[in-house]
Amino acid sequence: MLEKLSNVLKKTTDKIANAIFLDKNLVDSIVKDLQRALIEADVNVSLVLELTKKIKQAALGERIKGIEKKEHIIKLLHDELISILGQSREIKLQKKNTFLFVGLYGQGKTTTISKIASYYAKRGSKVCAIGLDVHRPAAPEQLKQLCDKLNIKCFINKEEKNPIKIWNQYRDELKDYDLVLIDSAGRDALSKDLIKEIKDISKLTKPTETFLVMAADVGQAAKKQAQAFKESCNITGAIITRMDSTAKAGGALTACAEVRAPVVFLGVGEKSADLETFDPESFLSRLLGMGDLKALIEKIHSVVDKDKMEKTQKALEEGKFTLDTFSEQLDSMSEMGSFDKLLGMVPGLGNVKDKIPQEQLELQQEKVKHWKAAIKSITKEEKENPELLEKETSRMARIAKGSGTHTSDIRMLLKQYKMLNELIKSQSTIAEKGLDQKTMMKLARKFGRKMKF
Ligand SMILES: Nc1nc2c(ncn2[C@@H]2O[C@H](COP(=O)(O)OP(=O)(O)OP(=O)(O)O)[C@@H](O)[C@H]2O)c(=O)[nH]1
Ligand SMILES: [Mg+2]
Prior knowledge:
This protein is α/β, with parallel strands linked by helices. 62% of the residues lie in helices and 9% in strands. The protein has helices at residues 3-18, 24-40, 45-60, 66-85, 109-122, 139-149, 163-174, 192-205, 222-233, 250-258, 280-288, 293-303, 306-317, 323-336, 339-345, 350-353, 358-376, 380-384, 387-391, 393-403, 407-433, 437-450, and strands spanning 97-102, 127-131, 153-155, 179-183, 209-215, 237-241, 263-267, 275-277. The chain binds guanosine-5'-triphosphate and magnesium ion (MG).
């Protein structure tokens, strides 16, 4: 169900959580991915643009900084997605209930009735169905067969062509049931005929709920359809079917929310058990692969220790990347347990890490241990002027001896430090001047090649 969108949303939150800088390039790429994925899921373009505009403004605004900014953006993304998914509405059964199901041809009304019948019967209600689709000849029999399979009482009259008469015929018997489900006829479009028929049925049967049934694959047509039904038929909730068979469900879901026909159930297959209740919060949690907003925000904090992160960020923003900053990076790297996280944290370098084989990454972790030990033996003076080490090789020998490493380790350490330093400086320039994606990629490739593991 909406797998692609789900993957992009997960990736987006990861990117935000892992980034050191939320620079223009990163924000642009996040926004672009989001836009593409939401539009592919058939979410209305203007909703998508509104959502991404807000994210961009918040991300590039100067008002909030550092880790708070990331929290702010994640929260904003979460809240905006919830708002386009609409209000949550739980259906509570009363003593006596009548549900009327309306919708265009083939949207899944009859199938959904059997699912709802089974859902409430399992929860102890006495449920029956009545077939008032008098237009499609096979309709009454279809409803009856579905109900028979579930041992649900079904009232039909295949000869009668007036739905009002069918209702009146069974009126007294229906009183024995807690929940009466009414199947109505569909049309190709919401015609005057159909509206009149639904209104007549509605006046007679006084439904406690009127559900619009709409298939997820209607895509962009969803809004017009939902709006037309909402305006003419007193819709109290919507049921989106065929959620299992399309990637475009975003259209139907958000359209119902937009016209204030809150989605209450989802059809996720052809069988009677393929029904889910819908709640925007838990639906979004599933898409994001996270329990709730709190879990999402914790994800940001779990990536790096807050104080260290802020210190590093400040150092980087000022273009100061000392051996101490490097050592701190190495610390958080070992805490995170993998070297590729560090690469992922450097904007633009995320794609390089995919090119490095796992064994080499593990080897790298060994090296990192040596480097950390070595940095401890480096004096303050040397940290501030690393070139001293290159000038006087005796210093290198001293450090190697003191930390139980080799001078080759120290050389490698210096080389990596210098390279990252250079990379970060160019990143800061890019952040300021806003170089385009192409140049970024070129840079990433350049450094990716240079990094010899
Ligand atoms: N995959 C999938 N198929 C569904 C779902 N709900 C309904 N269908 C299928 O959609 C088709 C139409 O379903 P119906 O229940 O007959 O639709 P309807 O709205 O009653 O159609 P009319 O009575 O002709 O207006 C059937 O083949 C169903 O099996 C669903 O959630 N998932
Ligand atoms: Mg039907």
